Amino acid sequence: MGWMTTAEAAEHSRHHPKTVERAARSGELRGVQRGGRGGSWRFQEFELDLWIKGKGKKRDANAR
Questions:
Q1: Which domains does the chain have, with CATH numbers?
Q2: pLDDT (tens digit per residue) in 28-45
Q3: Phi, psi for residue 48 in degrees, rounded to 5
């Protein structure tokens, strides 16, 4: 698959679109913002999968 919009990325990752955007703005999730600041984001499936796996590892490490 090519590039996904924020809505598509949110559906793929099962996260809220705002969560996906926050992760992209913080650098936790790699993406490209089109149109400069305030523009729409695009994400690659590979990067989303890495982000999802990383979030799972963090949760597992903190679980008691």
A1: 3-62 (1.10.1660)
A2: 999 999 987 878 999 999
A3: -65, -45
